Amino acid sequence: MQFTAKDIAFMLNGTVEGDPLAAVSQLAKIEEAQNGSLSFLANPKYEQYLYTTNASIVIINNDQQLTGPVTASLIRVENAYSAFTLLLEQYNTLKLRKAGIEQPSFIHPSAQIGQDVYVGAFAYISQDVKMGNNCKVYPNCYIADNVTLGNNVTLFPGVTVYFDCVIGNNVIIHSGAIIGSDGFGFAPKTDGTFSKIPQIGNVIIEDDVEIGSNTTIDRATMGSTVIHKGTKLDNLVQIAHNVEIGENTVIAAQTGVAGSTKLENNVMLGGQVGIVGHISIAKGTQVQAQSGVSRPIKQEGQKWAGSPALPYGNNMRSNVVVSRLPELEKRVLELEKIITELRNR
Amino acid sequence: MQFTAKDIAFMLNGTVEGDPLAAVSQLAKIEEAQNGSLSFLANPKYEQYLYTTNASIVIINNDQQLTGPVTASLIRVENAYSAFTLLLEQYNTLKLRKAGIEQPSFIHPSAQIGQDVYVGAFAYISQDVKMGNNCKVYPNCYIADNVTLGNNVTLFPGVTVYFDCVIGNNVIIHSGAIIGSDGFGFAPKTDGTFSKIPQIGNVIIEDDVEIGSNTTIDRATMGSTVIHKGTKLDNLVQIAHNVEIGENTVIAAQTGVAGSTKLENNVMLGGQVGIVGHISIAKGTQVQAQSGVSRPIKQEGQKWAGSPALPYGNNMRSNVVVSRLPELEKRVLELEKIITELRNR
Amino acid sequence: MQFTAKDIAFMLNGTVEGDPLAAVSQLAKIEEAQNGSLSFLANPKYEQYLYTTNASIVIINNDQQLTGPVTASLIRVENAYSAFTLLLEQYNTLKLRKAGIEQPSFIHPSAQIGQDVYVGAFAYISQDVKMGNNCKVYPNCYIADNVTLGNNVTLFPGVTVYFDCVIGNNVIIHSGAIIGSDGFGFAPKTDGTFSKIPQIGNVIIEDDVEIGSNTTIDRATMGSTVIHKGTKLDNLVQIAHNVEIGENTVIAAQTGVAGSTKLENNVMLGGQVGIVGHISIAKGTQVQAQSGVSRPIKQEGQKWAGSPALPYGNNMRSNVVVSRLPELEKRVLELEKIITELRNR
To answer: Looking at the keywords, is Acyltransferase present (chains A, B, C) (predicted)?
Structure first.
């Protein structure tokens, strides 16, 4: 699809300077833009790019002064950053516009499907599923018996949701994520073998949650594993059974939270963090990448780092000393020699 | 589905106290149970919940004394815990009851399929596959050429098994797990590029193994990567080519075992552990979460922790000192000052 | 399939010693070979296995001397190792020979499909996809709108490629890998919630790249996440948005590279490594397993280890001291006592 400067100015309620028929088919950063791209300039720090960019169209603020010749067509608007973000969103919506029920797909007759949904080919919707309006279920997704999806839910290709799980409104789940597989629960027997503890709970994902690719969230043994409202999980994250993740929490890639642990609201976990089971993490806690938290965190809003995790500053100071430990050991050895010498005086 | 106290008492060979028509449709812990739930009390420590629970039915031991009024209907049995576990298993079996060959699925004419199997829509069963009785292959699974599945194998949706792999009896593999993808083997060439070393071995998974969601187990270069009997792998675990994992071993989420390493029986690895390649880990070894094992472990039944891993107690003691390293460094500096002073006396 | 010694000698331009009708159906290491297996002996160190092996056929060098009786049929060739590798490759090619368009699959009428491709059942090829010659798209793969695949691309079962991504020639992607899912980008709002930053860039994978099972590579916010030519990624690797990975780089399993980071050519990352975002890693850098790199690496060809990463030797020396920290602390305490004593003299 191509759009002209005139079209875009109309959409954004802006005014064109230069060729109104300049056409673009993609969006790019001003410093990377090629011919045929639309870009924007909002931060005066980057003004120089305005005179060197290969973009065909650049959106600028109404009050932007020009101090040299510009080859791109310009569109002046009240707020260039907001205008560009609006275009990004529209572009994305356009790219992801899918509709209708493709064939062959499998929809159990007992499933209740809302209005204006997309169900891709090879998607499987089981018995007693309830799906709200405007949902998109891409190809190769599997939605098991008795799962509930709210409105505006997007399941990208290859998502699996096990039975009885509940997914709220406006939830986005990326490809390969697994919701509701069995928690890792086995009881050791006297002969060294293990017997499986049935995992009959479910997973509840509240509104406005986004879940990354190949992330796994296990169902509760009994009760629910819960991801509260507004929380964002990155790729390859592991959430174990009976975990509860608070609202507006952000968890970066490859992090794992062990069974029955509870994160309060507004927590931020870096990548590759591990949190042990059966503890509680206070509101607003921030944990640095690769840290390991093995004890409850009770004080709110603190930063932690290291494995085992220490308060952020302490960890930084310890790390510095670790890097010069061999030297420190030598200093101690030196002291011991001198002391021996002094004692023998 | 709903069951009455009378029905359940009949199943468990128990006796009802209270309303025999009290009905339940789910199972829950006594402290979390809602109206319509069935729960149990086995541990006298939790007796107080018996008088406050919202459960509609509670299973209790024959010898349980009551010290207050109870609103739930009670079912008395010999062993409340065992009886409840039995119900959990029956509930789970009921939830996972699937049968028949759904359409469209792909079953190669040369495949040998046992009795009483479930093959979901969009499942793919290739040439020369042999599948035992009572297997369940959920939708979107792929079973490649010449794979063998024993009896009572469950592949949840979206499992992939590459060619020639062998899976024993009673194996459960959760969604998104990949069995038998190529080992990571590349020979460096003089120009800096790599040539792929063909990976023509397979993966053998013995009886009673359970494998978590999105776990990956690579095929051997030649020979077999083996997961021995009774072993349980959690989600997002990585098992590299030519690894051998002993019997009744438990590996928590996000742990990785590098190529050609051998774990003896009854090993326990915490989450996010890494084990280097080409080493052997003695029977009964336990490794704490986030540890890194870079050397063979020869002594049986020991606990290890840290990266690089140390004997558990040593690691704990070192960690304590790490947390006060800045202070230790200051003490050494102080000593150096005093010593200089003493020497100059 | 079975092959005789005579057949194989003909393929390899070798000569048979022993039974020309000895037949084999698999390839194995000489020390592990069973009856019916073909093996090879190239390294004189392993000569003793020649006299004890159960292999039915062994390939040896023309100049190999025999110092005892051999039960296997022998095939003499110029270079036994090269000859065996050739057979490995042919075996692998044979095992992976797939052709034609299976039904039901979904191919959008606008898709351009090259010659001699394989499209498995339940594979989905969207609008405006361009696919080169000799590609194999296994069952349950999803290729989104406007994706380009070069020639000789193999997508094993269950690979998902999001819209607009570009994949070069001779690329191999293993099962469950997700290419082009949204980068993890959210802007915090004043009320503590997050707004999603649209991720409208793509992923570019250049020629000769191999990507492991369940690995995730996120699309750029704008522009491209790029995996350059000849690079090999293991299983469960996370590559964040706007990352650029250089040529002939090797990344082991469960490693993560955070957003906008750039790896130069010929980098090697061990397993479970973490690299923070927005840094650059110099050419030829090697990072040990489980390390965490939080600062740019500017000097080429250096080895790093630890979390946070130090130069390899420094890390090794620090680790040694860490393991005896409790003892070091005692020595300092001892010194303090003596000093006090000396001062009071």
So the answer is: yes
Contact A122 C140 (CB under 8 A): yes
User: Chain A partners of C262 at a C-beta cutoff of 8 Å?
Assistant: none
Percent of chain A with pLDDT over 70: 100
Considering CB atoms only, which of B96, B319, B329 is closest to A308?
Answer: B319
The residue in chain B having the minimum alpha-carbon distance to the alpha carbon of residue C175 is B178
Q: What angle (nearest 5°) sits at the alpha carbon of residue C280, between those of residues C279 and C285?
A: 130
Q: Tell me, what's the pLDDT at C201?
A: 95
Report CB contact under 8 Å: C339, A343: no
Model confidence pLDDT, tens digit, residues A49-62: 999 999 999 999 99
CA distances from B289 to A244, A251, B46, B237 (A): 20, 19, 31, 13
With bands split at pLDDT 50, 70 and 90, how would you rate the model's confidence at C264?
Answer: very high
Name the β-bridge partners of A244. Answer: A226, A262
At A219, list the tokens. 């169902």
Region of residue B272 (phi > 0: left; psi between -120 and 50: alpha; otherwise: beta): left
Residue C232: C-alpha distances to residues A135, B56, B193, B242, C325 (Å): 37, 58, 10, 19, 39
Pairing of the two strands A154-155 and A172-173:
parallel
Q: What's the confidence (pLDDT) of residue B341?
A: 86
CA atoms within 13 Å, Cβ hemisphere of C253: 32
pLDDT, average across residues C249-260: 98
Beta-carbon separation of B198 and C92 below 8 A: yes
B194 Cβ contact partners less than 8 Å away, ≥ 6 residues apart: B186, B187, B188, C230, C232, C248, C250
Determine the residue of chain A that is closest to C312 in CA distance: A323
CB contact under 8 Å between B178 and C271, yes or no, is no
In this prediction, residues A230-237 reach a mean pLDDT of 98
Of A158, A238, A335, the CB nearest to B254: A238
| Alpha carbons within 13 A on the beta-carbon side of B71 | 13
In this structure, what token pair is assigned to residue C336?
């303090």
Average pLDDT of chain B to the nearest whole number: 96
Rg of chain C, C-alpha, whole Å:
28
Chain A residues with CB-CB distance to C213 below 8 A: none
Question: Which of B29, B92, B249, B290 is the mutation pick for testing A, counting most A CBs within 10 A?
Answer: B290
> Residues A299, A282: contact at Cβ < 8 Å?
yes
Pairing between strand B224-227 and B202-205? parallel
Residues in chain B: 345
d(CA C266, CA C247): 6
Rounded mean pLDDT of A175-204?
96
Closest-CA residue of C relative to A321 is C318
pLDDT above 90 (res C341): no
Is B1's pLDDT higher than 80? no
Find where tokens 């993609």 sit: A26
Question: Cα Rg for chain B, rounded, in angstroms?
Answer: 27
Q: Helix or strand or coil: residue B9?
A: helix
pTM for this model (two decimals)? 0.95
**φ and ψ of C120, to 5 deg:** -75, 165
Among the residues of chain C, which ranges form H helices?
5-12, 47-50, 80-95, 312-323, 325-343
- Give the pLDDT confidence score for residue A174 in this predicted structure: 98
Q: Which helix (H) or strand (E) holds B7?
A: helix B5-12
Query: For residues A232 and C194, is the Cβ–Cβ distance under 8 A?
Result: yes
Cis ω on the peptide bond leading into residue C311 (within 30° of 0)? Answer: no
Q: Write the pLDDT tens digit of every residue in B271-320.
A: 999 999 999 999 999 999 999 999 999 999 999 999 999 999 999 999 99
The average pLDDT across A185-206 equals 95
